[in-house]
Design a protein that fits this description.
Blueprint lengths: L2 E8 L21 H19 L3 E7 L3 H14 L3 E3 L16 H4 L21 H25 L6 E7 L1 H11 L18 E7 L2 E8 L16
Parallel strand pairs: 1-4, 2-3, 2-4
Antiparallel strand pairs: 1-5, 5-6
Helix pairs in contact: 1-2, 4-5
């Protein structure tokens, strides 16, 4: 069996009343609404498993908000959390700032905006794709091996819980689209699921779902890195 699906899950809403661009900063926890979103994601995958899906692995960014989003998934599916640093949030020189749009009016920050196509203020989009897709490939292969060992007949499925920007640029690369973009146009809402379908190493499809769509109007949402 070589068919597999890798589900890229964005974390739920974070408690962030100061609207800090938290990036890789520690100790940013899910809000109550974010915890509800995490339970929605868990219910979504539990329903898939009850319907016969072979979900065999759960891989998570080391950051608190991702780990907390993954916790109810792990509990409902009976999976261990495997932490992978490669699916961490993108690095940004704006990390730790609050009210970023207002701060960028300060001329001292303008040199960081010199090349939005790379981008010049943080980790290059191409490097994010490289590390994310390496993690995706390793997770896919591990899931296929586990599913085969368990005697599963259907496609192997693995869940990766991470962050908006790395997930979005990985989707852009998978769909052969340019990596630079307007952050406001990312289709990767809180607790959304971007699914990559594989036949062996060949990507054969990309799907997108929002199990918490009805919760999004009340959520605080920063574009990310």
């Amino acid at each position: 069996m070589s068919l597999a699906t890798v589900h890229l899950v964005r974390h739920g809403e974070v408690h962030n009343p100061e609207r800090v661009l938290y990036g890789r900063l520690p100790d940013f926890h899910l809000s109550e609404l974010g915890q509800q979103m995490a339970r929605r994601v868990a219910g979504h995958f539990a329903a898939r498993a009850a319907g016969g899906a072979s979900i065999v692995r759960l891989v998570v960014s080391p950051l608190t908000r991702a780990q907390e989003t993954a916790a109810p998934v792990a509990e409902q599916l009976g999976l261990d959390i495997v932490t992978d640093d490669r699916i961490i949030e993108a690095y940004s020189r704006f990390e730790g700032m609050s009210q970023v749009a207002q701060q960028l009016r300060n001329p001292r920050h303008w040199p960081l905006l010199a090349n939005p196509f790379r981008p010049s203020w943080g980790e290059p989009y191409s490097q994010q794709v490289e590390r994310m897709m390496a993690a995706v490939d390793d997770a896919r292969r591990a899931a296929v091996a586990l599913a085969e060992a368990n005697g599963s007949a259907g496609p192997a499925e693995v869940i990766l819980v991470g962050h908006q920007l790395p997930i979005w640029v990985s989707r852009l690369a998978a769909e052969n689209r340019r990596l630079w973009h307007d952050p406001r146009e990312r289709e990767c809402t809180l607790s959304s699921i971007t699914s990559l379908d594989f036949d062996g190493r060949r990507l054969i499809g990309v799907r997108y779902e929002e199990p918490s769509a009805d919760l999004l109007p009340g959520a605080a949402n920063l574009p990310g890195a």
